[in-house]
Amino acid sequence: AAMPGLLLGDEAPDFEADTTQGRIRFHDFLGDSWGILFSHPRDFTPVCTTELGRAAKLAPEFSKRNVKMIALSIDSVPDHLAWSKVQGKGRCQGSSKGKVHREESTGLEPQQQGSWTTICPAPDLVSPHPQVFVFGPDKKLKLSILYPATTGRNFDEILRVVDSLQLTAYKKVATPVDWKPGDSVMVVPTLPDEEAKKLFPKGVFTKDLPSGKKYLRYTPQP
């Protein structure tokens, strides 16, 4: 299982790792920022190369949202540096090296082994599949997505999700299906009508339903 034992709302492991930007401790790296950790099966894979290039291109957008990006791969820091040159702009940071066969006594190099796993200072974050982890300034996991290696990640969707996470973290709203920044949002069900009217001076609008229930309450994005 990916990220075993770590659920939404759990605190991120405060691991230490060597990166292309030097040695870091994860909580210090995040500071008071949001953070996105992208895991990659390994460097120099074609799908992940396109992803890293896209992440670099969108770095200003993530920066505007106070989001730091870091990429976790099983290869060495020199490999990460070489890979970043291939994909153009190495804005993402690669984590520590470490490929170790389950039967270490064989003495074979990792490339020669038919089966290997990964070892790094953050074992809970290691996965053979591409993943996206979003952490808040409180160092807690806000979102995780697991992808197959053959399907590239949609960075427009990741930006949209970050916008939703940040909006709903600070306002008593939720974002409906297919929401985009600027669209109306939903008032959370736990907020009484009178309080909602005070919090959302632009107005609260209820959608009529066949059941007659009035629980779908919308307001312009605050």
In short:
This protein has 6 helices and 12 strands. By secondary structure, the chain is an alpha+beta fold. The strands form 4 sheets. It has a 4-stranded mixed β-sheet with strand order 4-3-7-8. It has a 4-stranded antiparallel β-sheet with strand order 9-10-12-11, covered by helices on one side. A two-stranded antiparallel sheet has the order 1-2.
What does this structure look like?
The structure is a single chain. With 222 residues, the chain is of the alpha+beta class. The protein folds into two domains: 10-91 and 108-159, Glutaredoxin (3-Layer(aba) Sandwich); 174-220, Antioxidant, Horf6, Chain A, domain2 (Antioxidant, Horf6, Chain A, domain 2). Helix content is 26%, strand content 20%. The protein contains six helices and twelve strands. The protein has helices at residues 26-30, 46-57, 59-64, 77-87, 155-170, 193-199; strands spanning 16-19, 22-25, 34-39, 67-72, 99-100, 117-118, 131-135, 141-146, 173-174, 185-187, 205-206, 217-219. The strands form four sheets. Strands 4-3-7-8 form a four-stranded mixed β-sheet. Strands 9-10-12-11 form a four-stranded antiparallel β-sheet, covered by helices on one side. A hairpin with a 2-residue loop joins strand 1 (16-19) and strand 2. The longest helix is centred in the last third of the chain and has 16 residues, at 155-170. The two termini are 38 Å apart. The model is unreliable at 76-126 (pLDDT under 50).
